[in-house]
Amino acid sequence: MSRDRRIRRTPVLLSALIALILAIVPLPHVIDVLRPDFLVLVVYYWSIESPSSGGLTLAFFAGLAIDVIRGVVLGEHALALTLTAAWAIHLRLRVRVFSILQQSLTIFALLGAYQFILFWVDGATGYPVTVWSRWLAPIIGALLWPIVSGILSRLHER
Amino acid sequence: MVAFRSHEATGRPSGLLLRSALYTLLALGLIVLDKRYDQLGKIRRALSIVVYPVELAVSSPFEGYTWLRASVTTRDTLRAENAELQAKLRNARLRLQRYAALQAENQQLRALRASTAGVGPKFLVGDIMDVDIDAFRERVLVDKGARDGVYVGQAVLDAHGVFGQVQSVAERTCDVILISDATSAVPVMINRTGLRTIAVGSGDLGRLELPYLPTTTNVVKGDLLVTSGLGGVYPEGYPVGTVLDIKIDRVRSLAKVDVRSAARLDRSRVLLFVWPTPAAARAAARR
């Protein structure tokens, strides 16, 4: 049977809000480069677990929030997050039965695509960021996935 | 795109393809509108009101800690600080006397040249908010916005020199792009020789470069760079940085000059938004 049951909105919005706060908490510059995209991981989690309670709408507006906070061209993160969340929703039935290692690899691919779309939009709009350290984000995100998904699953599976 | 068509376990299509296409078009539309037509200032401002509480929630604990530490300092510390501040004030007053004389002289000279460029009497003080915007771009969030009259492209100074310019404005906050950001360029003048050039940000905090100087240029280590006032963004005559290092490669025709910013890009908390005098604004508009 489908596990696409509707999860209450509260944990979804709450986790997104906390992830948004974690995205801008000040850190020393060295660690700041390594900061994982918590909000992106949270969006992927809800996309995989319950697309009906967040899904693309959550992805789009979470992306828009990142755009506004970072002051980049509006729609950049919204585009990247919408496309990769759609991919995640498409893969969800498979991802759910994956082992945690396979899940992390999937997340790595999603985050890689996400980062590539950002890279492309950055370049297309005239602000190329070509530092190599931006490509660390998918690796760090994939490494953190077991922790993030563990915490989030506690949030709604009581 | 058939790959995107997914089916629920019940067998009915979820409309994922349609919805993702819709949101993708929406996002692309936003990007084009924002980039090409610059029409989204109001939307951005409205959205930033929604995000502002989050930013405030993040920055207030740090401000609270600073406040707490300031309120529990001992009497001795306060006394020492007071003495130090009074000494500084004495020095500043001494300098100010000279400044008044210099200003009078300057005004006379300017009257002679019939030009009145420079910073007007109007300025605004803003605090940097304790929020990390982006690890890869050098920008800060400041607690003054459209409400206070801040506008895009406005020059921002700190106590030591030119800090940056306003990149985008929200209702209560604004993004300031630092002069050492890789996309920033400041028209400067070498104070000693009067040579004009452009200081380009290096992407490294507090470092700039002068990429357009020929190897034969008269520039030495320690030269002070001030804004030349050309371009109309930065007011004239403010310190930008000092020359840190010059590498001359005989093979190339251009020298590689490293500059350390005068403004304390990594340590300043208080910034100054300046408005050009009406005359300078007119001159900039003419250019």
Write up this protein.
The complex is a heterodimer of chains A (158) and B (287). Chain A has 158 residues and is mainly α. Chain A is built from seven helices and no strands. Chain A has helices at 9-24, 29-32, 38-49, 55-70, 76-97, 100-124, 136-156. Chain A is globular, with a radius of gyration of 15 Å. In chain A, 46% of the residues are buried. Chain B contains four helices and twelve strands. Chain B has helices at 16-37, 41-71, 75-113, 278-286, and strands spanning 119-127, 139-142, 155-157, 162-169, 174-178, 185-190, 196-201, 207-210, 224-227, 239-247, 256-261, 270-276. Chain B starts with 15 loop residues before the first helix and ends with a helix. At the A-B interface, helix 1, helix 4 and helix 5 of A face helix 1 and helix 2 of B.
Number of DSSP helical runs of chain B: 4
- Give the largest chain-chain interface (CB within 8 Å): A-B, 48 and 50 residues
Helix-strand category of chain A: mainly alpha
What percentage of the residues of chain A does DSSP assign to strands (E)?
Answer: under 5%
How many helices of chain A in DSSP terms? 7
The share of residues in helices of chain A is over 70%
Radius of gyration of chain B: 24 Å
Count of beta strands of chain B: 12
Give the count of structural domains of chain A.
1
* CATH fold label of chain A: Arp2/3 complex 21 kDa subunit ARPC3
Which CATH architecture of chain A? Orthogonal Bundle
Which regions of chain A contain 5 or more consecutive residues with pLDDT less than 50? Answer: none
The termini of chain A sit apart by 20 Å
Assign an overall shape of chain B. Answer: globular
Compact overview of the structure:
Chain A is mainly α and 158 residues long. Chain A contains seven helices and no strands. Classes of the chains: A mainly alpha (158), B alpha+beta (287).
